[in-house]
Amino acid sequence: MNGARFTGKIAALCGGVGGAKLALGLSHLLEPDQLSIIVNTGDDFEHFGLAISPDIDTVIYTLSGEVNPETGWGRKDETWRFMEALTRLGGETWFNLGDTDLATHAFRTGRLAGGAGLTDVTREIARAMGIKVAILPATDDPIRTVVETDEGALPFQRYFVGRQCQPAVRSLRYENARNTRPTPQVVAALEAPDLAAIVICPSNPFLSVEPILAIPGIRERIEARDVPVIAISPIIAGQSIKGPLGKMMGEFGMASDVASIADHYRGLVDILVVDEADREAVFDGTKKRVTKTLMKTLDDRIALADFVLRTAIDAKGDTK
Fold this sequence. Notes:
Strand order of the largest sheet: 5-2-1-9-10-13-14
Number of strands: 14
Order of helices and strands: EHEEEHHHHEEEHEHEHHEEEHHEEH
Distance between the termini: 25 Å
């Protein structure tokens, strides 16, 4: 912000590696009490009796500086003795659990079994890793993304990790969504009187953002706020930077481009931030802002976060 302090609060909807990268950039420019990161839990599942929250952990590891820089997920300097022993035993090895990552899952599982909520456990893990920003599971209730494919229905991690996104996707459903509710912390973040903007990070709209929006009350609260809703396109020049988004869009009969992203978010998002490679892209109903959105370095992440905050300032008074 070139020395200028951003005033007001930001609520950021986040999931996956791209979302975590922007969340990190925002955390460098905002005070801890200004930023709430609302994280997808549709990817959560149980494996070997352990409660695993992949998107939450990716955000925590990224903001703590513990993330594996090569993959964008998992922990740096990881060891794999558990997986090596499991292989010798003939156990299921389709989902890798690093030794230090395993400690996170074991701690979470024990706390949940003792009656703690996912929000409380997430706060405890984040604080132990030196994070002051609020990392908020979208809900403490179970919601599970199920991928309907040409091979049948697959739980998300079986599709994403086990089958490496190879089956053709027919549709998605967010199991138990109608029985969930946003946490009080998420409600407070979206209803904060000094909320300046809502940011939808460059996460997969279908796998990371829609499970959040499927929770009753979240989309309605976003639509009701008279603040700019700013999304960053996860598509650059027709390609998804990471993950199966481009492939999925083709399987849904959609063009893999920023216009399709704008159309998907129509009525919810006021401004779509696109990469310089998509400067000439045309779409209706949503304002376009252009900057470099590919985040290879920490400086890239901070620069994109700075652009988003400046866009929020410029949009003040020009909302829905």
